[in-house]
Amino acid sequence: MEVNNYFLNNWPFPDERTKLQFVAEGLPTWHLCQYPTAREDRVGAACRFMVMLFLIDDLLEHLPLKEGSSYNERLISIVKGETAPAQDSPIEKVVLNVWEDMRSIDKRLSDDIEEPTFAFWRSQNDKDRLAKKSVAEYLKYRELDVASAVLLATQRFQDAIYLSEEELASVADLELNYTHHISVINDVMSWDKELRASKDIAAEGSIVSNIVQTLADESGLDYDGAKRTCWVMIREWERQHDAIVQQKLQEGCSDALKTYMEGIELQMSGNELWSRTTHRYNAPHLK
Asked: Where in the sequence is the domain holding 30, given as residue range(s)?
């Protein structure tokens, strides 16, 4: 309730229906599913950060890419401290407040979240989003667009996991496997929502960029067939995850790295749990 109340009191929702929709989507619940081991003294700040990202993502659906790009560059400038929030912009004030809260808790690990967030915001307005892609090209594109680097850095922040550059480099293959898993889970579960948005919202930001569409175009399968194929891919990435982890454990690694790898697995399962149950994807009457 604390996180919901923060946004209900500070975010400029256009009307009561939109507020009810926000509460029904259960974005803080997503956060707790994704990060069940988060430290109590860090989870609130990190949850507000993630909910903010969801709300900005929704905002961008209604903007042309050029306008969305300018908007995100302004937010980036505010986070960097180069620009002050406009006094008449509740969103800009929330963005700065959320970042300041995280910095006050752990500046080192919150700083690690910044650049991945900036890259994610910029990817949302990249014209490459509109280009036709192969499955391999699409998965490569989603490495930025799904914000996996943001999610992983947030995990390290919440669990107070301090890893060396060498340790992070040693699990790059595990992180990439995780990225494919959460990307395709999100795409399959959000497909119907995105398809509706592409029909209802006349803006470039609402154009469907989804592996279901990509796989259907490339294979000749219908959308349901493409979704079933995606589920097979998802389960294979889970098996791949287990194999990579076992190899890392046999090679030997620090307790911090073990904790990090365990957290990645929890993220994968938590993301699927929430995606299967949230009103964000499963209650079209709320849209």
From this structure: 2-286
Q: How many domains does the chain have?
A: 1
> What tokens appear for 239 in the block?
């098996």
Q: What is the DSSP letter of 284?
A: G
Residue 276 CB contacts under 8 Å (≥ 6 apart), including other chains: 189, 282
Token representation of residue 30: 């997503």
How far is Cα 278 from Cα 157, in angstroms, rounded to an integer? Answer: 25
Q: How far apart are CA 209 and CA 197, in angstroms?
A: 11
Helix, strand, coil shares of the chain, percent, nearest 5, are 80, 0, 20
C-alpha to C-alpha distance for 157 and 193, rounded to whole angstroms: 31
Range 120-148 average pLDDT: 83
Token pair in block for residue 238? 């889970």
* CATH number of 211's domain: 1.10.600.10
Nearest CA-CA partner of 258 in 159, 158, 146, 176: 159
pLDDT tens by residue, 151-185 = 999 999 999 999 999 999 999 999 999 999 999 99
User: Do residues 95 and 52 make contact, with C-beta atoms less than 8 angstroms apart?
Assistant: yes
Kindly give, in sequence order, each residue whose CB lies less than 8 Å from that of residue 165, ignoring residues fewer than 6 positions away.
none
Cα 97 to Cα 91: distance, rounded to the nearest angstrom = 10
For the beta carbon of residue 259, count every other beta carbon within 10 angstroms: 17
242 or 24, greater pLDDT? 242
Tokens in use for 51? 């909910």
User: Residue 11, SS3?
Assistant: coil
